[in-house]
Amino acid sequence: MAERPFWNDIEGASAAEVRALEDRKLAGQIDYLFANSSFYQRKLGDAGLKPTDIRSVRDLRNVPFTRKSELRESLAEAPPLGHHGIAPICDVVQIQASSGTTGAPSYVGVTHRDLDSWCEMQARTMYAGGILPGDLVMHATSLSKGFVGGVPVFQSFQYMKVCDIPIGAEAGTERLLAVIRDLKPNVLYATPHFAVYLAERVPDVLGMTARELSVRKLSVGGEPGGGIPAVRAKMEELWDADAREILGGTDFGIAYWGECEDKSGMHFTGQGYIVAEIIDPVTEEVLEPEQGVEGELVYSAIDRQASALLRFRSGDRVLVTGTSCPCGRTSYKLRCVGRTDDMLIVKGINVFPSAVQDVVTRFGAEVTGLIKVVVDFDGHTTQDALKIKVECAQGLPVDRLPGLKRDLENSLRDSLVFRPEVTLVPAGTFAKPGQTKVSMIERVQPSGSRA
Ligand SMILES: [Zn+2]
Fold first, then answer.
1. Could you give the CA distance from residue 374 to residue 376 in angstroms, rounded to a whole number?
2. Nearest alpha-carbon partner for 389 in 320, 444, 450
3. Which of 11, 176, 253, 418 is most buried per CB count within 10 Å?
4. Alpha-carbon gap, residue 363 to 369, rounded angstroms
5. Confidence of residue 352 (pLDDT cuts 50, 70, 90)
6. What H or E segment, with its residue span, contains residue 220?
């Protein structure tokens, strides 16, 4: 049997076909929310909207945004799943938790049908990334804590008949590497920084290099890194493997953006389940997804029974990298450039920590690749030099330190057009990648402010 070009034919459908499907499902979802969701009955009612006002994706523009803070309040007031949980708890078969990078975890429920759609979207995403039935996957993201990178990923691999080895990041580096040596998986599923870290530990733990192991495909996500050119190149070189990136989030599924063999950005894979819009985060205007457009992703569920959300501000800041692709997928492609919350403005120049990391990682063996941007000012804007801590590689000669600091500062200034102040810190200063996401921001009390 010839290999299918995509997991699902909808990925190659025309824009008009996809839009017709979205309009039909959205209308049904709106009727369902008006009938069942006290959260949206109130929210849409307050905005003066009736079910007949929202019949198409175009009409979504009149719908107010839903923000994370509203979900937190709703969850606190009406446990376990909040006023927006909707489905009767007897229909909910699973509750997942978000990783809570910006506060307390939030909880998301799924029914049997919702779980099926999560698996379908994840299967499209994985298949785009070159992971096929018959592959053997080392599952090295966190399997505990209710994160979507754990049990739901396991379930989606079962759904697509890919063999998962659910060892998990919690097992620790030595255990994970020993199992890779013993079982010879051809795929590693991990966060990008953990994939790099694991490869770097192979010589100590196994007395060989990661290139000599069996992994030839890397599927990475959960944090910026896979889309940062220098980080990707490092990971591919270390493992002698092909790295592809994924993007998603617990509120709408597992991953619903996946990167094809063209490796030029991630295609949307949520057709029929989610509508994605890109907005200007300041003016909140909807932007057409044309090449070069940058904005924040906003999602609406259009075929969801439990925890269904409309126009949810994801906080993910993305750049559209293309609107057509040799692979035949018809959805546009994008890269995640960071979280809207992480963007800093240094003397009027927008700076994302992921861009800083890209420049630093190009210094190769002299650095570990881990950085912290020190935010010692209120909000996101500073007129001063931006302080950046960079971890040096183990064993770097002391007499190289002043030169490395100078070279890093020059490179950052030349590439990103802002004035940096680099502090070098020894290897091992920052928490090792593994079970938790790597934060590239260190917030400290503004030096001039009152305590
Ligand atoms: Zn493609």
1. 6
2. 444
3. 253
4. 8
5. confident
6. strand 217-220
CA atoms of 158 and 254, how far apart (whole Å): 14
| Residue 322 Cα to ligand 1 middle (Å) | 9
Residue type, 314: S
Distance 395 CA to ligand 1 centre (A): 42
Q: Position 275: which residue type?
A: V
Q: Residue 38 — left, alpha, or beta (φ > 0 → left; ψ -120 to 50 → alpha)?
A: alpha
Determine the Cα–Cα distance for residues 46 and 13; give it in Å rounded to an integer: 37
Convert the pLDDT of each residue in 126-165 to its tens digit: 999 999 999 999 999 989 889 999 999 999 999 999 999 9
* Contact criterion met (CB below 8 Å) for 53 and 84: no
Ligand 1 centroid distance, CA of 247 (Å)? 15
- What is the whole-number distance in angstroms between the Cα of residue 236 and the centre of ligand 1? 20
Per the CB < 8 A criterion, the answer to whether 335 and 112 are in contact is no
Domains of the chain: 1-337 (3.40.50.12780), 344-443 (3.30.300.30)
Q: Work out the end-to-end distance of the chain between its first and last CA atoms, rounded to an integer number of angstroms.
A: 68
